[in-house]
Amino acid sequence: PQPLVSVIMNCLNSAKHLRAAIDSVYAQTYSNWEIIFWDNVSTDESPEIAQSYRDGRLRYFRGDATVPLGHARNLAIAKSNGELVAFLDCDDLWLPQKLEKQVPLFIADDRVGLVYSDTFFFNESGYEKRLYSEKTPYRGSRFPDLLNNYLISLETAVVPLV
Predict the structure, then answer these.
(1) Which of 72, 30, 35, 71 is nearest to 51 (CA)?
(2) Are the C-beta atoms of 106 and 116 separated by less than 8 Å?
(3) Intervals of the chain under pLDDT 50
């Protein structure tokens, strides 16, 4: 069996790009995932958009009060059932093969503690840039390097749930 990936989505008034972000998870070629959607007390249409996905793979939770993003992520992680955790902000998109390419690396080697990839930054004005167009990503066991020079875009990261 393929490991379940819990996709952590934290939302605070993110209706503008929310459906595209969620749809990018639904478009994954790797199918064993769940979305843990943590609504940080949105006042826009975000709750209605998130709750319109009714197939059970998106689990919607709403906080009692707005909390800092890191705390909200931890609250969402506490609701997850996955063996792996991935993060997707509500204004970001995943390419369809993201999880299909990353998950097997954990299966192949149980010492793998983090898998990440390049990021394409873009906006509605036509700006585009790859994160690693000017930097070289780390490979292998590089924890000390990451402590000194953190260059991971969180929406690309997948980690085991410990």
Answers:
(1) 35
(2) no
(3) none
Enter the tokens of residue 18.
């929310």
CA 124 from centroid of its chain's CA atoms: 21
Rounded Cα distance between 98 and 9, Å, is: 16
Q: Which tokens in the block code for residue 119?
A: 């990021």
Element (H, E) at 19: helix 15-26
Q: Which two three-digit tokens encode residue 122?
A: 């873009």
Measure the CA angle with vertex 32, ends 29 and 33; round to 5°: 95
How much is the pTM? 0.89
**3-state secondary structure at position 49:** helix
- Within a 13 Å sphere around the CA of 22, how many CA atoms are in the beta-carbon half? 27
pLDDT score, position 125: 78
Rounded (10°) CA dihedral 135, 137, 141, 146: 50
User: What type of residue is 117?
Assistant: S
Predicted pLDDT at 133: 66
- So what's the pLDDT on residue 142? 66
